[in-house]
Amino acid sequence: MEAGLHEGSAADADRPLRIALLTYKGNPFCGGQGVYVRHLSRELARLGHHVEVIGSQPYPVLDEGEGLDGLSLTELPSLDLYRSPDPFRTPKRDEFRDWIDAVEVGTMWTGGFPEPLTFSLRARRHLRARRGDFDVVHDNQTLGYGLLGDVGAPLVTTIHHPITVDRQLELDAAGSRRKRASVRRWYAFTRMQKRVARRLRSVLTVSGTSRQEIVDHLGVRDERIHVVHIGADTDLFSPDPSVPKVPGRIVTTSSADVPLKGLVFLVEALAKVRTEHPAAHLVVVGRRAEDGPVAQLIERYGLEDAVQFVKGISDAELVDLVRSAEVACVPSLYEGFSLPAAEAMATGTPLVATTGGAIPEVAGPDGETCLAVPPGDAGALAAGLSRMLGDPGLRERLGAAGRARVLEKFTWARAAEGTVARYREAIATTHRSAPGTHSRSATGTDSRSAAGPDRSAVQTPGRSAARPAAEQAPAAGPSAATEGSRSAAQQEGEQALAVTPVDTPHRESRTTC
């Protein structure tokens, strides 16, 4: 029988589950994956399940309060190579713990992004050392080779959208052969993610558009993919008439200055809008890249006083900022869902959004719940913003209709219920297919090897956890980040996972949130 399962669990629809929720990046203030983990874990705990979030830096921020006693965080630290204020740092010798750390540094040195691979290897080691503690393991888009091995419980994986989409958009925007080579090196991990995705038995995604992209880009079989819409925290993101509207204010969220987010088109549109509405100004929730294309456009159009970037704000400050805007805007070229759209609509702030990716699934029909424009069209975006700013009646009507749509379709409580249904299905399927006493991985491969020691898990102070951290491994030292270290990763992957060897890492100069 699968480790972590109990006899009759497939038929026991009410039994609380023990869930390991994995996320290699969990900061909810700078990316959608962290928002997903924070809100989904809270709602799963409110349903009575025991949820242990296992994450790496930047660590997830979890909610606390009544009904959340079953929610805890276990820190699985990386070397945190991209942290501020010293991204792309070389760790000191005594920071190295094992060969996985060496692989992490070696991959960064040669231009690649190591975290999906190295987190998956650490997570596998941790989970195998805790065999029997969980009924299901839920991976939040790590898609690393380590999770194809025996992790002690059925595996369910969320793919928000294929990162190959981001890769292609950045390649299209690259202005030189050197830049394109740099993009390819950074995104080398997507080859691993494609190989892993094709072997998964249960995949969740957040929209019908993402489902089709996963089939087309990653080659996952359609019947293995299930759409579970995510949503907004409608208690937090709600209307508040006491918050005054700021005339001309447009608000948008952009976690990074990358082509995918379409911020360059919004800045160009703002320059056009201000010829008709001089009070129009833009507040961007996100970090400003001083030498990026957005900063260059702001300077070109003389918009230094009309564009403001804010970061590090609290939830309450974010909500009040959105409430204060006359218009919210999602200018993205592509989104797998668009949490910023759902959250803005939940506050009753009217939305102008592109039709990129799954945004129409969230924002709804043009003229009924939002104003919709083609992606990558600054002129159309300017026209939509000007129309919204100039028509108070339209803003009121679309704002009310937008909130009603979110309340009906996109809440985290509904997302948690749909996710639990897929957990139970995965548990039942694994239970039926593995009647023997040995464990069987979620990918359908036999794995009888003994679990090794977990050398990296750290429990977050002030939170309960299943078991304490194990003793640290001896330091490997910087010299270990060599081809020999990558060979160790390759050999471990081949022996334990029986999959294609790890791709050769590359180098790129960028930071990640």
Give the topology.
Layout lengths: L17 E6 L8 H15 L3 E6 L15 E5 L23 H11 L5 H15 L6 E5 L14 E4 L4 H11 L3 H10 L2 H9 L5 E3 L2 H11 L6 E3 L21 E5 L9 H11 L7 E5 L7 H8 L6 E4 L4 H10 L2 E4 L8 H8 L4 E4 L4 H5 L7 E3 L4 H12 L2 H18 L2 H22 L24 E2 L23 H15 L16
Parallel strand pairs: 1-2, 1-4, 2-3, 4-5, 5-6, 6-7, 8-9, 8-11, 9-10, 11-12, 12-13
Antiparallel strand pairs: 3-14
Explained architecture:
It is a single chain. The strands form 2 sheets. The protein has an 8-stranded mixed sheet with strand order 7-6-5-4-1-2-3-14. The chain has a 6-stranded parallel sheet with strand order 10-9-8-11-12-13, with helices on both faces. Strand 1, helix 1 and strand 2 form a beta-alpha-beta unit. The chain is of the alpha/beta class. It has 2 domains: 294 residues, 3-Layer(aba) Sandwich (Rossmann fold); 161 residues, Glycogen Phosphorylase B (Rossmann fold). The protein starts with 17 loop residues before the first strand and ends in a 16-residue tail after the last helix. Helix content is 37%, strand content 12%. Helix 1 crosses helix 15.
